[in-house]
């Protein structure tokens, strides 16, 4: 009995008190663990495997190509061979092609057009009403994707959303995008442009986690009413026998 009561006290001490900002420390730690967005995202489309691109040389039509980007993110070009083009913008690829052909062509002027888009979708998960895959029809923002997924659940942390994005070397990168309005300006998430295959995660709030811990460790594990005393647990004759 003493062991049981000691365990009960330890559990209750670990649960934040009402009105106390007990989740502030854990929330601060969670936010500090994820770096904020530091690089500017101008919203330019970045090429993905499966995209079909039309490459035209202004003065050398014989080199014109319509190619599909392979699953490894590369294409093959006449005279220069393979090039890694996934995760680059149209402007970046035009510059790279012009540089690659500068020792071969007198005037390597290149224009590029995307004929067919692949992987035009993003994924929203966590504390939203309709998690899952969303098609990207035009420009999509982090806030727009959350709203399209049904908006926040009551248990959601509404300060920021997390974006998981693949980098050029195909490694996942974690970005924190603020959902807070500042000085009369719209939240960062309202202007943050998503890229195809981005994963948007909405975390559970600290208050919701505390409530879940209370339910799991107290209400479900302790077979008594917190206000009803120990009579139900001990029974009529008590666990030590004899009448009480």
Please explain how this structure is put together.
- This protein is of the alpha+beta class and 244 residues long.
- It folds into two domains: 108 residues, Outer membrane lipoprotein wza domain like (Outer membrane lipoprotein wza fold like, Roll); 65 residues, wza like fold (2-Layer Sandwich).
- Helix content is 25%, strand content 22%.
- It has six helices and ten strands.
- The strands form three sheets. A five-stranded mixed beta sheet has the order 7-6-10-8-9, with helices on one face. Strands 2-1-5 form a three-stranded antiparallel beta sheet, with helices on one face.
- 16% of the residues are buried.
- The N terminus and C terminus are likely disordered.
Q: Give the C-level CATH assignment of the largest domain.
A: Alpha Beta
By DSSP, the count of extended strands is 10
Low-confidence stretches: 1-40, 224-244
Architecture per CATH nomenclature, i.e. the level-2 architecture of the largest domain:
Roll
What share of residues are in beta strands? Answer: 15-25%
Please list the strands of the largest sheet in the order they lie side by side.
7-6-10-8-9
Tell me roughly what share of residues is in helical segments.
10-25%
**Structure annotation, total helices:** 6
State the order of secondary-structure elements, H for helix, E for strand.
HHEEEEHEEEHEEEHH
Structural class: alpha+beta
The average pLDDT is 76
CATH topology name of the largest domain, in short, is: Outer membrane lipoprotein wza fold like
Q: Describe the biggest sheet?
A: 5 strands, mixed
């Amino acid at each position: 009995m003493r062991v049981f009561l000691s365990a009960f006290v330890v559990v209750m001490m670990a649960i934040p008190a009402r009105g106390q900002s007990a989740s502030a420390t854990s929330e601060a730690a969670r936010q500090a663990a994820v770096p904020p967005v530091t690089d500017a995202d101008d919203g330019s489309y970045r090429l993905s495997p499966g995209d079909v691109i039309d490459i035209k040389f202004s003065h050398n039509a014989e080199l014109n190509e319509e190619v599909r980007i392979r699953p490894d993110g590369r294409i093959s070009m006449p005279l220069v061979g393979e090039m890694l083009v996934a995760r680059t913008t149209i402007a970046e690829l035009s510059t790279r092609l012009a540089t690659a052909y500068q020792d071969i062509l007198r005037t390597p002027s290149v224009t590029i057009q995307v004929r067919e888009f692949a992987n035009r979708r993003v994924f929203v998960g966590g504390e939203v009403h309709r998690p899952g895959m969303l098609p990207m029809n035009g420009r999509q923002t982090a806030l727009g994707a959350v709203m399209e997924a049904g908006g926040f659940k009551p248990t959601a942390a509404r300060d920021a959303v997390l974006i998981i994005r693949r980098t050029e070397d195909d490694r996942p990168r974690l970005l924190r995008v603020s959902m807070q309005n500042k000085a009369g300006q719209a939240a960062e998430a309202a202007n943050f442009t998503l890229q195809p295959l981005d994963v948007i995660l909405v975390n559970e709030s600290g208050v919701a986690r505390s409530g879940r811990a209370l339910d799991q460790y107290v209400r479900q594990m302790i077979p008594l009413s917190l206000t009803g005393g120990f009579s139900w647990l001990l029974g009529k004759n008590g666990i030590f026998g004899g009448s009480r």
